[in-house]
Amino acid sequence: MNRGLVLRLESLLQLRGACQQRALSCRKAWGTRWKPGQPVSSVLLLPQPWQRDTLLRAAFPHCRHLATKQDTKKKKKAPVLRGEVEIMPRMSIEELARAMGKDTEHIYEALLYTDVNLDSLEPHSILHEDLIKMIVQKSGMKYKSAKLKQEKERKNTDAVKRQVGNYPALLTPRPPIVTILGHVDHGKTTLLDSLRKTQVASMEAGGITQHIGAFLVHMPSGEKITFLDTPGHAAFSAMRARGTTVTDIVILVVAAEDGVMQQTIESIQHARNAGVPLILAINKCDKPEADPERVKKELLAHDVVCEEFGGDVQAVNISALKGENLMVLAEATVALAEMLELKADATGLVEGTVIESRKDRGKGPLTTAIIQRGTLRKGCVLVAGKTWAKVRFMFDENGKAVDAASPGIPVEIMGWKDVPSAGDEILEVESEQRAHEVVDWRIYAEQQEKMKKDEEVIEARQKEHRMEYEQRQRELAHLTWRQRKAALFKANKHLLFQRPTERREVDESTLSIIVKGDVDGSVEAILNILDSYDCEDECKLDIVHFGMGDISENDISLAETFNGVVYGFSVKANESVKKLADKKGIKIKLHNIIYKLVEDLKEELTSRLPPAVVETTVGEASVLDTFSVTVGKNKIPVAGCRVQKGLLDRRMKFKLIRSGDVIWKGSLSSLKHHKDDVQVIKTGMDCGLSLDKNLEFRIGDEIVCYEEKEVQQTTSWDPGF
């Protein structure tokens, strides 16, 4: 190469514009498709390849995708087996090139066949899955999804129940666990109160049980019976179902004057699903309107057959309030328990079930539990759900500390690290280290299950998006690239004018709520009610947060963020929290009875609804004749009418009805009686009127005068009680 050529090359290195002109002249000479911003290594004509590459890299230092052949040789290309490329949903241009065993120039060339703006692409630019698949296919290869690096499979370290061995010598009699079920206000708590001689019913809000109570009753004969008092209210279906899973006998309480009700039927179904025998207690037999025989006959329709009708269900007529026949009911329960031969192993590791859980300000997380195997003592290490406890103290139903709890005995346990859910299985483990292993495994297993479900959802969405993309490509296949680009711009033009919201805008038609309850079961019951909300088209209901314990300042701050309302069930809010809520304008609604909380919630939903416009008819007239008058150069149709009902007031709104259809709404341009302009025409009077719109009248048309009033809408949500 001579000296003159070298000098010319040096001048080109200093002037990029000259380099681009060189490339453009080559494009004209060879017909190569090139424009600034695209790879130009294939169009520059210089004596030696190294000169061409040196010139390009010097002239375009910002174009990192330009490389010499020597550079390309130095880079190791990823081996591609049988033309298959492992792809991921999002890959950079460099990553895709390595996966395909190509250089980045190949990717840019493949992108020439798309609507992608190549000027904006860099080697680190991210490509999406659909584009990646298209590039691989255009390159004559096949693709497959890359498998994520799988975590080493963990060993299952969960705690499990002990196997039931055939050791009759270890089995000892235990108290029967009896659940009292029935409809709300049929006397279940009063019955239990009479049995254990305390005033539980008077302590319950409104006389309605709000959550499960577990009590041990000592009979005069020396037997012990563990009773579970479950709520009869419709909101507490999950609690009643949970009560039957740990019970041996169900006492079905039915009021003699009311008969079989909705929750009575549900209670029968719970007992049947659990395979638990029934004893029928017909309560309130002291009332004049009581009819026990009607109750027994109504229960026949639900396959509950009393002994007098040839069945196996004992029926006892009682009065819980006056204490009549309670001993007969207790004896029937003890007799049935003896027939069932209830025994348990009081040795070995403890097993039980969480009946209820709550947070206490002084004691921390507490659970009411029924022990089913083993004997619980202080210092035992327990696991339940995703938490564990080292038992510090135990209390009976009266709050008295106890040292041990044997099978069938209800006990309140103190020492939990967190609050377990009602219904969780309690298992004793050997040590705190073992408890950590069990809890870690359960959290891990839950995460894996969640990841599996998320992957299924992602795959389904990807499939849906892929089908939409392919459909769109088929629709645009017959267009040129310019027409395709214009069509895509037109379809997505509305997205260009959307500004990103800098803060969360709260819609007026959305009610955000925070729910706090005294125990886990109460919160569960409230959430179950809210799950039945089906009026999203009227007002959206957003549950921002829920939990146990008294209302705190954090709840108020959260409610302020979402413009929400705080609902508390059997909890308190101290004075500082109330003052903070007043200062920030946050409503705190405290309730002790669940149906009153729901009624309050419905009122709050109603207040969020926009007012509805209601039309009130003021008068009606019928068209008896039609004619027209000339005003200037225009002919105006006029209707001769007679008022049939009410009155016509020119200041109000009117509508024209023909054959049952409203064909016009608006105001009158004139209203005359004979030749006089009037404001009001009363019943039986004739008049002539014209509309603010040029419409032809027909004989028999109806003219209706009405006024519009705004009326507050009421939510149509029906929680079922």
TrEMBL record:
InterPro entries: EF-G-like_DII, IF2_II, P-loop_NTPase, Small_GTP-bd, T_Tr_GTP-bd_dom, TF_IF2_bacterial-like, TIF_IF2, TIF_IF2_dom3. SUPFAM superfamilies: Initiation factor IF2/eIF5b, domain 3, P-loop containing nucleoside triphosphate hydrolases, Translation proteins. GO terms for cellular component: mitochondrion. Transmembrane segments: none annotated. Its main location: mitochondrion. Keywords: GTP-binding, Initiation factor, Mitochondrion, Nucleotide-binding, Protein biosynthesis, Transit peptide. Residues 173-343 form the Tr-type G domain. It comes from the Eukaryota. PROSITE patterns: G_TR_2, IF2. GO terms for molecular function: GTP binding; GTPase activity; translation initiation factor activity. CDD domains: IF2_eIF5B, IF2_mtIF2_II, mtIF2_IVc. It is found in: Mitochondrion. The keyword Protein biosynthesis applies. One of the essential components for the initiation of protein synthesis. Protects formylmethionyl-tRNA from spontaneous hydrolysis and promotes its binding to the 30S ribosomal subunits. Also involved in the hydrolysis of GTP during the formation of the 70S ribosomal complex. Belongs to the TRAFAC class translation factor GTPase superfamily. Classic translation factor GTPase family. IF-2 subfamily. PANTHER family: TRANSLATION INITIATION FACTOR IF-2, MITOCHONDRIAL (PTHR43381:SF20), TRANSLATION INITIATION FACTOR IF-2-RELATED (PTHR43381). This is Translation initiation factor IF-2, mitochondrial. The lineage of its organism: Eukaryota, Metazoa, Chordata, Craniata, Vertebrata.
